[in-house]
Design a protein that fits this description.
The protein contains 14 helices and 10 strands. The protein is globular, with a radius of gyration of 21 Å. The chain has 379 residues and is an alpha/beta fold.
């Protein structure tokens, strides 16, 4: 047994090392492809786009985020903001945007449809009001560059894709928030880039989902995802399930994590982990293989010094490639030596994900079914 354990750790450690290499290649491939796409001529005829923005509360940086959408350099588009009630704290900011940009088609719509996933209920109502054949959905706190719409919709046309999604980097106003933003850059995003390389087709991020109305209808509409917590993943799964392809845009957008406490970050990470667990249980079981920091510690415990050193160097290099080369995140570059420490945090979160199926989301408690459906827990 004493001999077997170091051998097992060596095997799994080299598997973790192989993952770091694959993630670095995925990040390099994304950067090269993005550069090539940016240098291609844009399509001459870009489709009219309806931007659907579900809103629930006034988040830090919301005004700046929505301003970037209103100032897009694009031939024809509209922005539909949906709220459950006109008493929502974000409504004055939306009304100010409408008043300041009368030349842009912007509408504020009260959305009464109630679904377990409140965001999906708003999208169901916004879709009825949308006028254009191409739809773009993104989270309310997403900030975008001026050529965002042109690039994303252009990619949908250029590659004849069914869905275009965007990677994102995060900012935050607290140490705990910066820690989570760092993890997004050096763990979540690299794993997302690896997904298509290992045959996963149904990838789509809430930062951006751009698709044709006709493909959404074939996939069952927003009603088909209204009971699920991971509406972005479920939507991508259904659109790719009708024979369409999902691709990454060359545009990297930005989200704001406000000023979360360590408790907030922990709760968010556990909810995220449990969401992945019920959405892609097979892949979730194997996640510890990607946590190089875990295998570094075990290699040190059993005095496997060369393996520990190789894993450390590879993990830091992967953090730089995934976080800085792919995302251009200076936070990822500066904190890259801490990537193994993030892996230990992620491993503890992974364990916590198996401690139950209950999550807290937008102030409510839910129980998740085995396939990710939401069941609200009454207080």
């Amino acid at each position: 047994m004493i001999i077997i354990i170091p051998i097992l750790i060596s095997i799994l450690g080299f598997a973790a090392l192989a993952y770091q290499v694959v993630a670095m290649l995925a990040a390099a491939f994304y950067r090269v492809e993005s550069t090539l796409v940016r240098n291609r001529p844009q399509p001459a005829n870009l489709p009219a786009v309806s931007i659907l923005k579900p809103v629930g509360g006034l988040e830090t940086g919301f005004e700046k985020a929505i301003l970037g959408h209103a100032t897009q350099c694009y031939p024809e588009f509209e922005i539909l903001f949906g709220v459950n009630t006109l008493d929502d704290p974000a409504v004055p900011a939306i009304q100010a945007l409408i008043a300041n940009h009368p030349d842009v088609q912007i509408r504020l719509i009260a959305c009464p449809t109630k679904t377990p996933n409140a965001k999906a209920g708003i999208l169901i109502d916004l879709l009825r009001e949308a006028r254009h054949p191409v739809l773009l959905v993104n989270d309310s706190d997403i900030s975008v560059p001026p050529d965002y719409l042109r690039r994303v919709a252009g990619r949908l046309i250029m590659q004849k894709a069914g869905l275009v999604t965007c990677l994102y980097r995060a900012t935050a106003g607290s140490v705990a928030g910066l820690w989570e933003a760092f993890g997004i850059s050096v763990d979540f995003v690299p794993s997302t880039l690896v997904a298509p390389l290992v045959g996963i087709r149904e990838f789509g991020l809430g930062s951006t989902l751009c698709f044709r109305r006709e493909d959404l209808e074939k996939a069952g509409g927003f009603e088909a995802v209204s009971n699920y917590i991971a509406d972005d993943y479920q939507l991508a799964k259904r659109i790719t399930g009708v024979g369409r392809r999902s691709v990454f845009s060359e545009v990297v957008v930005q989200t704001n994590l406000c000023e979360p406490t360590w408790r907030d970050v922990w709760k968010h990470q556990v909810r995220w982990a449990r969401t992945i667990r019920v959405s892609r249980g097979d892949g979730f079981l194997g996640l510890p293989i990607t946590h190089a920091g875990l295998w570094i510690v075990l290699a040190l415990v059993f005095q496997l010094w060369p393996l520990a050193l190789m894993l450390f160097l590879a993990r830091v290099a992967m953090a730089v490639m995934g976080g800085f080369v792919a995302l251009e995140s200076w936070l990822a570059l500066l904190l890259s030596p801490l990537a193994p420490l993030w892996d230990l945090w992620a491993f503890v979160v992974w364990i916590a994900a198996f401690a139950g199926r209950t999550v807290e989301w937008r102030g409510e408690k839910y129980r998740l079914s085995k396939d990710g459906e939401l069941d609200r827990i009454d207080s």
